[in-house]
Amino acid sequence: MYERKTPLTIDCGLHLTKEVLNGKWKPALLNAISMDIKRPSEMLRLLPGATRRVLGVQLKELEAHGMIEKKTYPQLPPKVEYSLTEIGWSLMPVIDAMNQWGDANRSFLETVVAQDPRIVETTKSACLIYRNRKAG
Amino acid sequence: MYERKTPLTIDCGLHLTKEVLNGKWKPALLNAISMDIKRPSEMLRLLPGATRRVLGVQLKELEAHGMIEKKTYPQLPPKVEYSLTEIGWSLMPVIDAMNQWGDANRSFLETVVAQDPRIVETTKSACLIYRNRKAG
DNA sequence: GATCCATAGGATAAATTTATCCCTATACCA
DNA sequence: TGGTATAGGGATAAATTTATCCTATGGATC
Lengths: 136, 136
Hints:
The structure is a homodimer.
Chain A: E1 8-9, H1 13-20, H2 26-34, H3 40-46, H4 52-64, E2 68-73, E3 79-84, H5 86-104, H6 106-115, E4 122-123
Antiparallel strand pairs in A: 2-3
Helix pairs in contact in A: 2-5
Chain A binds a DNA duplex through residues 2, 4-6, 22-24, 39-41, 50-54, 56-57, 60, 72, 75-80.
Keywords (chains A, B): DNA-binding, Transcription, Transcription regulation
Organism (chains A, B): Chitinophaga silvisoli
InterPro entries (chains A, B): HTH_HxlR, WH-like_DNA-bd_sf, WH_DNA-bd_sf
């Protein structure tokens, strides 16, 4: 297994939160689970830009960090459902704040972000579904 | 210059916000500037884990994304001051939410984050200063 | 004259994260 | 038999981000 070589910075709340959300799809996954999209295959369909592999890895990390719980059904084909833990739910206001700020400033952000000369291409293929939040 | 090879995902607010905050020190820098720590040298002292180089790069990106403004004083030695733009200020509630959630769950998070077998070492050397928010 | 201050940024190495590809297992369906 | 669905995860390549090191500026200070 890969072993980190640089000390992880966990000084302030900001860095701790950043570490938990550190992963391309983690906020989107938490958001999806909060909206009752609980099976990996559903998440994969919801986030076409992601691969099964990455989602699996990031779900595992979220689970290891205590944000989500995994329930495996002894069935075939396999069935797995994830749900937010209590602390996972407590993180949702942060996710919501990020989501809302980004949406509220969408046109501006799309412009400045895409203006970056390093960026050649952008995609809007993911996170297309917005639903009501499942009752926690 | 480095050119991105993978399309940037900018579908939902979540990803847009993530892109703006994408950088090890960006949330901490925004937080610092909001607390009237406006000169790069001050930020460097505040964040001992960071190098001058990285802070410079990330400040430049924040500026390019319109979150901060740079004022250069024609002096020697050079003097530069950063300040939050209007949209930068509007992002502070998100930063605050991250900061507060992380602080509120500090002991739990320090445990689970450090439990990761990939992690060999952690550091708490940065973000040590908390002050009152400068009036926006 | 050497050194430090404060800032900017080039060049390159190293670290870390993502992407790709592949294989496992089993029930069901045509 | 062959393909589909569902989930897990190894191995490795590629992409991206950070870290290191170095050069430049001009005045002040030792």
